[in-house]
Amino acid sequence: MSASFSLALDQSFDTRRGARQAWAETARGPAEVAPGPGGQALHFLADSEIFADGDECVSFYRVVSGVVRTCKFRSDGRRQIDAFYLPGDVFGFEAGARHALCAEAVSEASVIAYRWRGADSLPVDDRAAQQLFAAALHELRRAQDHSLLLGRRSAFQKVAAFLIDMIERSPYEDSVELAMSRQDIADYLGLTIETVSRTLSQFEREEAIALPSARRVRVLDRAALRHAAA
Amino acid sequence: MSASFSLALDQSFDTRRGARQAWAETARGPAEVAPGPGGQALHFLADSEIFADGDECVSFYRVVSGVVRTCKFRSDGRRQIDAFYLPGDVFGFEAGARHALCAEAVSEASVIAYRWRGADSLPVDDRAAQQLFAAALHELRRAQDHSLLLGRRSAFQKVAAFLIDMIERSPYEDSVELAMSRQDIADYLGLTIETVSRTLSQFEREEAIALPSARRVRVLDRAALRHAAA
DNA sequence: CGAGAATTTGACTGCCTTCAATTCTGGTGG
DNA sequence: CCACCAGAATTGAAGGCAGTCAAATTCTCG
User: Fold this and answer.
1) pTM, 2 dp
2) Protein CA at A174 to nucleotide C1' at C13, angstroms
3) Max CA distance (Å), chain B
4) Is residue A92 scored above 80 in pLDDT?
5) Spatial distance between the Cα atoms of A123 and B98, rounded to a whole number of angstroms
6) What pLDDT digit, counting tens, does each position of A57-89 carry?
7) Nearest to B33, CA basis, from B5, B3, B65
8) What is the largest CA-CA distance in chain A?
9) How much is the average pLDDT of B122-143?
10) Is strand C less than 7 A from the beta carbon of A46?
11) Which nucleotide comes closest to A193 if you measure CA to C1'?
12) How far does A25 lie from chain B, in Å, by closest CA?
C-alpha cells in the first residue's frame, strides 16, 4: 500500500474548510476504494462546506453516512448541482491541482478523506491504482449520464429520471427519504422549485408515487415512472 | 512500456465496426498519452461509426486529424451529443466492459486506437498509467463542464459558450472552421437547429461574430461573446 | 447548371419560468 | 401540550423563451 494514503491531513485543513467537527480517530474504512490504513474521518453539519471551488486538491473523499452535493455558483448567483453522493460514493477527483466544484453536506454527513494530490500521486500499489482509476471512470459515466439528463428533456422526464435514480440507490425497494430540498433537486435538474413541486404533485395525482411527507417518496407505479423518464 | 499498448487490434475490429478504410501501418503517434510503440492508425469517412453504443471496449482512441463526436440515441429517436474531439484529444474511456456511447467521425478523421479493456488493464508502467489516469480525469472535467453548460442556461449563453470553446481549441486566434453541422451543434447544446441558427444570426447582427460561410466563424468581439456566455 | 441537402427566416404554440399568495411542516418557548 | 413562527413547499395566474411547423434561401456536389 502506498504511504500517501495513510498520511494524516494537515490539522489546518479542518478549520480552513469549514469542518464543524473533525474526529481525530483514523478510521479504518470499508476499504473498497482505498484498502489499507484508510484516511481521516470527518464530520459535517448540514449545509456546511467540505471543500470550496478553487481550493487546492489535497484529498478525495468517501461518504460514510449522510449525503453530499458538489456544485458550482454562477456569476448570476444561480447554483448548479453537479452530483449527489450517497454512502459508499467517492467524490473530489480533479484533473487539476485545484477543485473546480465545491462540495457541501446536504444533510449531516461523515466522510473519510484520503490524501491525494492529483493524477501524479497515483499510488504505486497496482491494485489501489486500479481501484482509483475505476472510481474515476465511474464518476465519468455519472457525469455523462447527467449531461444526457439535462439536454432537451421535459420537466417530467427529468424528475422521473431523478426519482428512479434515487430509488435505485436507496437501500429500500420502493421508498426513499430524500435528503435534499426542492431547491437542491431543481438546481440538479436545471429547473425551478415550482416546476419540481408541480411535477411531483402531478405524479402523485397520476398515482405513480405517494408523498407521505415532502421528503418521503413511495413508488406506487414503477413502470409509469420509467415510462415517464423515457 | 506495457505490452498491452503495442498489441495490434484484431483484424475483425475494422470490418465489424464500420471503418471504411484501415491503414495497416502501425503509426508512431505523438505519444503524449501512450508513449512507446503506439497503436493502430485508423481512418474514417465523415459520419462513419468508430464504435457503437453497447460495443465491447477493446481500445481507447486518440484523434490525429478531423473531428469525432460521441453520442447517444434516445428512445424517441433524438440524438444527444456528449462531446466533440479534436486532434490530440483522447476518447473511448469507459467504466464498464461495454461502451455507453457511440463514436462517429464528424468529418473525415484519422485516429489511433490503443488496446485497452477497462480499468483492470491499467498498464504496469507507472508513467503510462499516470498519463492514462490524467486523460480520464480530463474527460471527467469536460463532462462536468458540459453538464454545467446544459443546465438552466439560455440559448444565447449556450451558443456563446460553445463558440468560445471551439475558438479556444482551434489553432487560430479568432477564426474557426466548424466541422459539425447545425444539427450537431443543436444536439450538443440541447437546442433545435432553428434556435442555433437564429442565435448565430443574432450574434452576427450584433457584430460579435461574422459568418463568411455557414461553417466559418470569425470572432469580432470576443468580450461580447464572453459576456453573453456569462 | 440542376437537384437535394443544409441553413435561414417567419409565424404561432406550448412549456417552463416568474411573480405572488397560500398551505404545510418542524422546531421553540410559553 | 399546544400555540406560534419561520422556512419550506405547494398552488395559481400570466408572460417569455424556445420549440414546432412551414417556407424561402443558400450551399454543395455531381
Assistant:
1) 0.86
2) 38
3) 56
4) yes
5) 26
6) 999 999 999 999 999 999 988 999 999 999 999
7) B5
8) 56
9) 86
10) no
11) D9
12) 31
